């Protein structure tokens, strides 16, 4: 089984078990704070199920209807998970606010704290496992699910502390206050996850990825690569698609141009952490390029070499050659 499928299947099975355990804790204690944690576990199960389906889709090969593959479904999966988290948080806040004014009796808090604490520890372990697996396989879905479980474990830790305080102080309205605080925390994390997924769906530029590519090209640039410009990157799940323009000597024949482009392709795929598909447009050099062109045996040079222009985010992403001032 593929690592991504294995990881999300483990998450789904564990989420179901922990959800049942948290509802047992709620029926033991009748605590709204515990119910808050149990309700969020329903979201965990739904999110993990949807994440499993989305990861299945990403493993499908490219086809006529999806020439770039199915990777973008991971952003949609993260979006759905963020929405579910936010809705759960809103419901929790409203219910807890109501129960502040119309409280119900709570009991067996220590038993509930033990169960909730145990589920939080399990979520912490599974959360780190999913995040690490997601980073190794460039899966936003696994990272999102892992961060969701880490959020849940933090909520559980705060809940255990709150339950102990209620038991020690006898101030039972703290139950509602703790629930509201946890609900707001859940809403905030849902917003962050949704914001990131929307950026991916809208092809928002991933500045970190582009910087990595620019650094790789700058560190390994060849004298025939006169400049690189109009560089853009789009991420589709674990795959990265890059298009750019590369200025090459105008007298290169088609075989030479093909070889230079192939060298850039191999360089990016060996050095980058992402599987990358490149679309490179070759531009011929102009006389104005001579003063920063390092070609040592150029028989058509019209100006002396004055100095190399370093590649950075400012000049590589612009749609123009790097004419020196």
TrEMBL record:
It is a multi-pass membrane protein. One of its GO terms (molecular function) is ferrous iron transmembrane transporter activity. The keyword Transmembrane applies. The chain crosses the membrane at residues 7-29, 41-61, 73-94, 109-129, 172-191. SUPFAM superfamilies: Cation efflux protein cytoplasmic domain-like (SSF160240), Cation efflux protein transmembrane domain-like (SSF161111). Residues 8-202 form the Cation efflux protein transmembrane domain. Its main location: membrane. Keywords: Membrane, Transmembrane, Transmembrane helix, Transport. NCBIfam families: CDF. This is Cation transporter.
């Amino acid at each position: 089984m593929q690592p991504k499928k294995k990881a999300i299947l483990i998450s789904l099975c564990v989420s179901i078990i922990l959800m049942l355990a948290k509802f047992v804790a709620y029926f033991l204690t009748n605590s709204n704070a515990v119910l808050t944690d149990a309700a969020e576990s329903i979201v965990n199960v739904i999110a993990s199920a949807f994440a499993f389906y989305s990861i299945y889709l990403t493993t499908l090969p490219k086809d006529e209807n999806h020439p770039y593959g199915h990777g973008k479904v991971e952003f949609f999966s993260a979006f759905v998970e963020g929405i579910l988290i936010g809705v759960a948080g809103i419901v929790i806040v409203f219910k807890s606010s109501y129960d502040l004014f119309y409280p119900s009796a709570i009991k067996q808090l220590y038993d509930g704290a033990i169960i909730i604490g145990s589920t939080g520890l399990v979520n912490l372990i599974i959360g780190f496992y999913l995040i690490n697996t997601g980073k190794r396989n460039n899966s936003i879905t696994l990272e999102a699910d892992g961060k969701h479980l880490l959020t849940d474990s933090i909520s559980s830790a705060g809940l255990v502390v709150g339950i102990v305080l209620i038991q020690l102080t006898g101030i039972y309205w703290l139950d509602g206050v703790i629930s509201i605080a946890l609900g707001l925390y859940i809403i905030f994390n849902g917003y962050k996850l949704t914001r990131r997924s929307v950026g991916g769906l809208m092809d928002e530029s991933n500045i970190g990825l582009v910087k990595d590519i620019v650094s790789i090209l700058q560190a390994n640039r060849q004298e025939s690569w006169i400049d690189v410009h109009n560089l853009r990157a789009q991420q589709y799940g674990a795959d990265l698609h890059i298009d750019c323009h590369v200025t090459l000597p105008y007298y290169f024949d088609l075989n030479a141009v093909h070889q230079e482009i192939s060298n850039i392709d191999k360089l990016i795929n060996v050095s980058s952490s992402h599987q990358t598909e490149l679309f490179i447009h070759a531009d011929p050099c102009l006389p104005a390029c001579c003063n920063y062109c390092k070609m040592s045996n150029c028989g058509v040079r019209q100006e002396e070499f004055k100095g190399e222009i370093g590649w950075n985010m400012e000049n590589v992403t612009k749609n123009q050659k790097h004419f020196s001032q």
